[in-house]
Structures are given as C-alpha cells and as structure tokens.
Amino acid sequence: MEALAGIEAFCSDVIEPFARNAAADRLPVSRKLAKAWGDLGMLGLQTPRELGGLGASYFAKISMVHALARRSFATAFSLNNMQSLVYIIATRAADEVREQHLSRLLQGDAIASVGITEPNGGSDLANMRTNATKVSGGWVVFGEKAWITNATICDLMLVSAQTATGTRGIGRFIVDMSSPGVERLPAHPMAVGHPAGLGGARFDRVFVPDSYLVDAPGEAFRLGMSAINGARTHVAAMCVATLQQSLATAVRYCVGREAFGKSLLNHQGLKWDLADVANRLEAANLLTYRAAERIADGCDATLAAAHAKKFAAESALFGVERCMQAMGACAVLESTSLVRHLGDLKLAGYADGTTEMQNERIGAFLIEHYAD
Ligand SMILES: Cc1cc2nc3c(=O)[nH]c(=O)nc-3n(C[C@H](O)[C@H](O)[C@H](O)COP(=O)(O)OP(=O)(O)OC[C@H]3O[C@@H](n4cnc5c(N)ncnc54)[C@H](O)[C@@H]3O)c2cc1C
Prior knowledge:
By secondary structure, the protein is an alpha+beta fold. It has three domains: 2-111, Acyl-CoA dehydrogenase/oxidase, N-terminal domain (Butyryl-Coa Dehydrogenase, subunit A, domain 1, Orthogonal Bundle), CATH 1.10.540.10; 114-217, Butyryl-CoA Dehydrogenase, subunit A, domain 2 (Beta Barrel); 221-370, Up-down Bundle (Butyryl-CoA Dehydrogenase, subunit A, domain 3). It is 51% helix and 15% strand. The strands form three sheets. A four-stranded mixed sheet has the order 1-4-5-8. It has a four-stranded antiparallel sheet with strand order 2-3-7-6, with no helix packed on it. It has a two-stranded antiparallel ribbon with strand order 9-10. Helix 4 packs antiparallel against helix 6 (220-256), helix 7 packs antiparallel against helix 8 (302-326) and helix 8 (302-326) crosses helix 10 (355-370). The protein starts with 6 loop residues before the first helix and ends with a helix. The structure holds flavin-adenine dinucleotide. Residues 77, 81, 113-117, 121-123, 147-149, 193, 196, 198, 347, 350-351, 354, 356-357 line the site of flavin-adenine dinucleotide (FAD). Residues 77, 81, 113-117, 121-123, 147-149, 193, 196, 198, 347, 350-351, 354, 356-357 line the site of flavin-adenine dinucleotide.
C-alpha cells in the first residue's frame, strides 16, 4: 500500500494538532483537511482503481484507521463516513451522478454524509418518518435527519426515506444540500466528538431526480444492513486504536514516576490494573480481526461484528478510565488527551447501532443456536 506509506507521518504532523484544536475550538473536520485526505487518496481507499480509487482491501482500511484513531476517534469517524459515501457513489450510482460528483468527492472538493437517524430515534428504522413520494421525473423528499456525521459541512447527503411502510419501503436518495427546500441545521451542541461534525437537516418537499435514487426500495435496507457490519467492525478497530494509545500514555507515565521508592509501574496493584487493560485490548483486537476477516472473505459478519463492536466499545471505556486512574491527577491534563479520548469513546456505544442493538444480534444467535 505504497500510497498510504505517509499516513503515519501525516497523522502525527496534521491530525494530532488538528484534533487538539478541534476539541478546544469545537470545530468539525475542515474542507482543508478533507482536501488533504483527497490528495493522499484516503477518500477513495476502497473505491476500485478503474473508478479512480486505490482499490485497497478492508484490512488496509483497518490499518489506516489505527493510525488516525490513535490521535482522534472522532476525526476517524468523519473520514470513514466520507469514504463510505464515495464508495457507494462509485459503485452504485447512475453514470450521470458519478460523472458529476465522483471525482470531486475523491479529491475532497466535495463532502458527503449518510443520513438515516431522525430526531425521534435511530434504532427503530421501521419507524422512519422521512418520506419520498414519486412524481414525474423524480421523487419529493420530506422529513428531517439528526445526528449525521459531517452534516454540518456536507455538500451531498445519502438520505434514507420511506416510499412505503416497513423497512422494505425504504429507499436511499442522494440529496444535493444546495437544493431548494433543504435547510441545514446547526451542529448539535456536543461536549465531545466535534471533528465528526454531527448535525441535521430538514427537507421540505425537496425534488430529487430519478437518477439520484441510489438504492431502490426493497434493496436499500438489505444493502444498508450488509454494509453496517463493515462499519461496526471499523468502529471496533477505532476503539482498539484509541485504547492502545491511552495505554501507551499511561505506561510511559507510570514508568517515569516514582512513589514509595519505586516507579508506579512496579507497584503490583497498578501493574495488574494495566495488565487487565492490556488483556481486554488484546481480546478486542482479536475480535475485530476475526470480524474483519469475515468481511474481507465476503462471509456473513453479523454476529462477529456485533461481538467486536460491543466488546471493543465497552473495553475502551473501561480501559481509558483505568489508564487515567493509574496516572493520578496528571491524567486530566489536556496534554495527555485522555479526557478527550474518553469522551469520544462514549460515542462508540451509539454510532452504527447502539450496544443494545449489538446485544439484539447476539441474543438472536443464542436463540437460533442454543434454544433446543
Ligand atoms: C458519533 C456518532 C456518529 C453518528 N453518525 C451518524 C450518521 O452518520 N448517520 C446516521 O444516520 N446516524 C448517525 N448517528 C446516530 C446513531 O446511528 C444513533 O445515535 C443510533 O442509531 C441510536 O439512535 P438514538 O441515539 O436515536 O437512540 P434511540 O434509538 O432513541 O435509543 C435510545 C436508547 O434506547 C436503547 N434502545 C432502543 N431500542 C431498544 C430495544 N429494543 N431494546 C433495548 N434497548 C433499546 C438504545 O440502545 C439506546 O440506548 C451517529 C451517532 C453518533 C454518536
């Protein structure tokens, strides 16, 4: 993966300072940063080469996000959403949509987002209220989306809308955010995760041409559900990376600081605490790679992704808190980034399906395999 050889240096030179400023100034990912990602090929990571991307494997994506999420979990989130939309437009959109938008998206000159969640809830997709009505030459979209990554800065949004009742009635439409009837809403006033640029939009009878229906009703829900396993495994990898960075910070600190005549890490209680963190980190990483392997092999990864995301999200919260305890008061200094990591990691339990929704997947497996 030659094109990605400079990613580690890019992350320490650009992402690290960006993440610190973004937390202090409450800033989303900037267009300048999106452009830098485009220049490095990161936005077209999995997009096939013949369509202008790098055609990299899912494992390459997981490796790349490690470098990013060690610096900023929320920035990694933003990048992943942009990449996903580029991939969808490259591989599924009509020719005219591709011609108009793909190269701008690949280069970071345009930004896209994925709008599923609504103000009344995100878990219960069948209860989606945004709707699309067929008219001559296209569709009219009406409704509101909330908690959408990159919504505050995006040019296009892939909007899920009901064309008929039930999840089979959901279609996915690319909406140009400059269309008449689109109202971009202010960023959610969050205490954490600012780089992800979470916000919403209202769609008041927005006309969308037929060619901008990317995933037809009947297909959209199935395609969304199969992609979600990749997204969940990706979140698990982000949790692993952020936890790994936090553990390294704690270990370095505890080796260098003395109490009662020896380094903190030579006190058994503390060393064992960090060993517990390392133990969960290892297990979360293995679950993540098991799920990634199934995705890369084209196998059903529903259960593996649910286990990986649930365990990695819970372990990361547990682990960063333990790392902070081991460091004493110095843990809360801004320079350690640990409070920022802890806050951002809380988001992992919501995004791409809450921990409870992962329990639903795992629970369904229990019934299927152990009930009789
Ligand atoms: C960082 C971040 C990025 C995001 N990016 C996007 C994005 O790009 N696009 C997008 O569409 N959405 C996005 N979301 C929204 C996310 O998908 C939703 O937050 C998620 O689906 C949960 O929906 P909700 O927050 O409305 O919670 P709700 O669905 O209202 O649920 C509230 C609580 O009830 C629990 N619950 C609900 N139903 C059940 C049940 N049957 N059994 C047990 N417990 C239940 C949930 O698990 C949760 O704990 C993002 C969220 C975050 C935090």
